[in-house]
Amino acid sequence: ISKPKFHFLIHLLAFIRCFGPAIIFSTERYESFNHIFQLSCIHSNQCVPSRDTCQLFAYQDIMKNVATGGYWFD
């Protein structure tokens, strides 16, 4: 489901001048990822939240690789 981002209308003309045609201005994919970051920070010890988040994402990536039948070259 995609909802329009009306705030972009304010900046759209400047973006078109700088970057060319506005083909896709969808930010939902990135905004929904903020929820994942927030959840990983909740389960952190808050001493080094960026390290804890990176370790969690690395572990999840390893599990995804193993679950989908992936392997590592030695």
List the helices and strands and how they pair.
Blueprint: H1 8-19, H2 28-42, H3 49-67
Explained architecture:
- The structure is a single chain.
- It is built from 3 helices and no strands.
- The chain is an all-alpha fold.
- The protein is extended, with a radius of gyration of 18 Å.
- The N and C termini lie far apart (42 Å).
**In terms of structural class, how would the helical and strand content be classed?**
mainly alpha
Percentage of β-strand residues: under 5%
Q: Total strand count, please?
A: 0
Largest sheet: none
Termini gap: 42 Å
Mean pLDDT metric: 76
Rounded to an integer, what's the Rg over CA atoms? Answer: 18 Å
**Which term fits the overall shape?**
extended
Catalogue the unreliable spans. none
Question: Helices and strands, in N-to-C order?
Answer: HHH
Helical stretch count? Answer: 3
Fraction in helix: 55-70%
Question: What distinguishing features does this structure have?
Answer:
74 residues; mainly alpha; 3 helices; 62% helix; 0% strand; extended
Précis, in short:
The protein has three helices and no strands. The mean pLDDT is 76.
